[in-house]
Amino acid sequence: MEASATQSFSEQCRKIMDQHLQEFLDNRFIKALESGKVDSQALLTYVQQDHRYLDRYLPLYEKLYMAVTGEKVATEPDQDVKEYEAHQILLDHAHTNEDDLVSSDYANSAVTNAYLEHMEKATQEDDFVGLLSIFSCPFDYTYLANHMIREGLIKEDNPFFPWFNYYSDFNHGFTKDVTSLVDQAAKKASPEQKAKGLAAFEKSTEYEVAFFAQALED
Ligand SMILES: Cc1ncc(CO)c(N)n1
Question: Record's Gene3D superfamilies (predicted)?
Fold first, then answer.
């Protein structure tokens, strides 16, 4: 399908997610969240790896935000109170807390490192490609959560409902902010940058699936 003049660039990311949605829905970890029962060890693996991931993700976001806007990030994404509350649900079910995640001794998984290296390399090569590589993080969660709630896969009685609900709004928080950065930057991007950006977004989307999956691998 031809991209129309009125279509924002981030709509093309949505189409890529349309193609990958089923892989997320078939994922064992996502299915466990959907059932409301997740092994606490699997959740611990997820929140530990996510802690390591976000630690190296935020500097990339800060650099790319500056590259696109010429300004420093005003509010850091991890200062979002609602996100903190949503995250707390996962920590509780994993029988851990933020201090333990910071101080415990555990190794980065191969998937975590590969995903981080993909984004770091993309960011070194080109700001626009880097931006698209970090966009999957907020966008894919929002797309997935929005779908699962809308389709009734996650209902209010699910213990993880608040976590999904937090991410489900495209016009909120970090997802909204990065979407507008992507659409702003796309106005100045060349066709080649756009093609490479979409490929980097798709690769990150594949890493997002693998990132969930690793929690239930042994
Ligand atoms: C790996 C990963 N992707 C996306 C999000 C959403 O913020 C997250 N916390 N972690």
Answer: Heme oxygenase-like
d(CA 208, CA 203): 9
CB atoms within 10 A of CB 49: 21
Q: pTM value?
A: 0.94
43 lines ligand 1 (CB under 6 A): no
Q: Tell me, what's the ipTM?
A: 0.96
- Residues 145-194 pLDDT 10s: 999 999 999 999 999 999 999 999 999 989 999 999 999 999 999 999 99
Nearest ligand 1 atom, CA 207? 1
Evaluate whether 108 touches 55 at the Cβ level (below 8 Å): no
Q: Tell me, what DSSP letter sits at residue 156?
A: T
Contact indicator for 158, 41 with CB cutoff of 8 Å:
no
Other C-beta atoms within 10 Å of 66: how many?
13
